[in-house]
Backbone:
């Protein structure tokens, strides 16, 4: 019930509308009550003809329909409106919250799963909550009004009819529990489906190249079948409620009829009153049927809310210290001091151990080492994608955990092996880190990034849209856009994580030139496979198994017998020579 209260909390800003909705529902309930009451007049007054009376009753009857109509329309409209607003707010809140999570969070959850939370779970709340809550209030008001009327007419008769209610409550509660559990499972299945679909679509080339379509479809089919079974279990529970209600209603009606027949014979009840009583109890039937589903519907909403609130309560964001100060533009340099790091899932196996080195502002430091040595992990610490587990990273002598995240990340530009482009125009992509940049500035950055020429050849030029993840561009072109983007942010710290390793030699040359422009006047951390970039670095840090094996210039390290860098260098020379002979 906690979840439910929390969900209602999100409706608080719209409580004025909700109140109006409830008023409309009360109007609807009053209309129903009026109709039940009129039946008495119809039987007792119209069947014994009296022209004056007939006109009055007809007008009143029409009036009740009119009032009921307005009440239904207004309450449906207002409650759905509130539901939609709550869902809209929750969805945005969830997206913003998820986007703020740490890198560790995103390596645990797949994007398909997260998308399912935002779409399916939120929609579940929307359909369950806005209708269910409207039904709950509207039909309860009607039932209470009609039940009150029954008691007013004849208390004994009313007791007979209402005696069956406790018999109904127990199965309703039990079914509700089942629906809630099954709903959670259903949402899990949907999440899995969404994950499979997004995996299949993003990896479509690999799927086809390895002729795995049939297997992918089969996996999808199996997951779909599981979802189907779970949903049918919910349907079966939900569908068993109305017949149950109907049966019990029948029993009550039979009892009432038996009792009433005796009272009418004794003259204690007029036929009009009895008919009115019957009409009121029949009119209670539809609301009670709806109410019987309310619990199940609420359980569905609660199950979905639970999943959303769990996500909203997950806090993996890198936290900012209270009173964190903004970091000024880097003037002196960056220092790693005794840095140790292990990933959360394997705290016993540190990925970095005792890493210490420092780089002066404007210098280039190359991080080299075998695959898996911890190079990416090391540079991820600078913008605080992860926090060190030991030691610290200092910029101008200040621990980066002491400064605001925004000011720290403002200083950092990042170019990775896998370029991330958004389905926007070229210009928007270049200006991603500096949205207020003018067209001239964007073009200047593109020129410096050697991207201007190919951009102007595209249909639409800077306003061309580039498709999801930039699929319509070549690897080298994408990389040069990423470089132009980094150039435009004018951030003093630059991280290049294998920015050129996915490229062929020819586009690598262009990208390399663009990178040289980018590195000018910036403190650069570069991870590169090609040693040409590394050779010119001011400092080389050779990592071996998470620890710094060597630090020094190319000249100092290249001839060290048995050195990590010397070995990597020798291997690279061999590679380059082979590539040379091949071309
Ligand atoms: N998100 C992660 N969670 C757990 N372990 C990871 C994660 N990312 C990398 N690792 C592990 O950390 C080690 C170093 O990885 P990485 O820094 O990517 O190496 P490099 O960039 O030098 O190839 C590897 O053993 C890798 O398996
Ligand atoms: Mg790496």
Residues:
């Amino acid at each position: 019930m906690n979840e439910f209260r929390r969900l209602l909390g999100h409706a608080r800003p719209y409580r004025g509308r909700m109140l109006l909705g409830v008023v409309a529902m009360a109007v609807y309930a009053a209309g129903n009550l009026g109709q039940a009451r009129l039946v008495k007049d119809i039987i007792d007054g119209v069947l014994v003809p009296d022209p004056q009376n007939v006109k009055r009753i007809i007008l009143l009857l029409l009036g009740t329909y009119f009032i009921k109509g307005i009440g239904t329309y207004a309450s449906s409209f207002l409650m759905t409106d509130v539901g939609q607003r709550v869902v809209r707010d929750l969805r945005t809140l969830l997206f913003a919250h998820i986007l703020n999570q740490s890198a560790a969070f995103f390596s645990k959850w797949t994007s398909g799963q997260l998308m399912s939370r935002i779409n399916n779970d939120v929609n579940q709340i929307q359909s369950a909550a806005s209708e269910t809550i409207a039904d709950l209030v509207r039909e309860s008001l009607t039932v209470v009004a009609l039940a009150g009327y029954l008691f007013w007419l004849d208390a004994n008769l009313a007791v007979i009819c209402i005696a069956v209610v406790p018999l109904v409550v127990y199965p309703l509660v039990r079914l509700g529990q089942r629906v809630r559990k099954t709903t959670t499972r259903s949402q899990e299945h949907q999440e899995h489906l969404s994950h499979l679909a997004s995996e299949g679509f993003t990896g479509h080339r690999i799927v086809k190249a390895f002729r795995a379509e049939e297997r992918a479809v089969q996996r999808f089919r199996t997951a779909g079948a599981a979802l189907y079974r779970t949903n049918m279990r919910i349907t079966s529970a939900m569908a068993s409620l109305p017949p149950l209600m109907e049966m019990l209603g029948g029993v009550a009606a039979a009892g009432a009829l038996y009792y009433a027949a005796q009272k009418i014979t004794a003259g204690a009840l007029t036929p009009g009153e009895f008919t009115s009583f019957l009409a009121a109890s029949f009119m209670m039937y539809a609301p009670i049927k709806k109410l019987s589903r309310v619990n199940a519907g609420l359980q569905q909403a609660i199950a979905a809310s639970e999943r959303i609130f769990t996500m909203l309560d997950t806090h993996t964001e890198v936290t900012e210290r209270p009173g964190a100060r903004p970091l000024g533009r880097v003037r002196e340099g960056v220092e790693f001091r005794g840095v140790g790091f292990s990933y959360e899932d394997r705290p016993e196996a540190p990925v970095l151990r005792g890493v210490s080195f420092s780089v002066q502002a404007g210098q280039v430091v190359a991080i080299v080492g075998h695959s898996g040595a911890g190079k990416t992990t090391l540079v991820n610490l600078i913008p605080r994608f992860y926090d060190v587990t030991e030691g610290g990273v200092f910029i101008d002598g200040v621990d980066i955990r002491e400064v605001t995240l925004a000011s720290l990340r403002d200083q950092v530009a990042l170019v990775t092996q896998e370029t991330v482009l958004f389905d926007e125009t070229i210009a928007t992509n270049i200006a991603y880190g500096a949205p207020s940049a003018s067209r001239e500035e964007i073009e200047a950055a593109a020129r410096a990034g050697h991207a201007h020429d190919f951009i102007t050849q595209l249909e639409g030029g800077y306003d061309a849209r580039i498709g999801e993840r930039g699929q319509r561009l070549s690897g080298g072109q994408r990389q040069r856009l990423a470089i132009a983007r980094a150039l435009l942010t004018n951030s003093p710290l630059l991280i290049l994580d294998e920015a050129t390793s996915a490229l062929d030699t020819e586009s690598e040359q262009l990208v390399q030139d663009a990178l040289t422009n980018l590195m000018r006047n910036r403190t650069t951390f570069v991870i590169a496979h090609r040693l040409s970039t590394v050779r010119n670095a001011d400092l080389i840090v050779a990592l071996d198994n998470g620890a710094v094996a060597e630090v020094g210039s190319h000249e100092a390290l290249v001839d060290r017998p048995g050195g990590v860098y010397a070995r990597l260098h020798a291997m690279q020379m061999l590679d380059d020579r082979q590539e040379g002979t091949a071309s």
The two ends are 71 Å apart (CA to CA). Residues 107, 343, 345, 351, 369, 371-377 surround adenosine-5'-diphosphate (ligand 1) (CB under 6 Å). The chain has a mean pLDDT of 87. Residues 2-312 form a domain with the ABC transporter transmembrane region fold fold (CATH 1.20.1560.10).
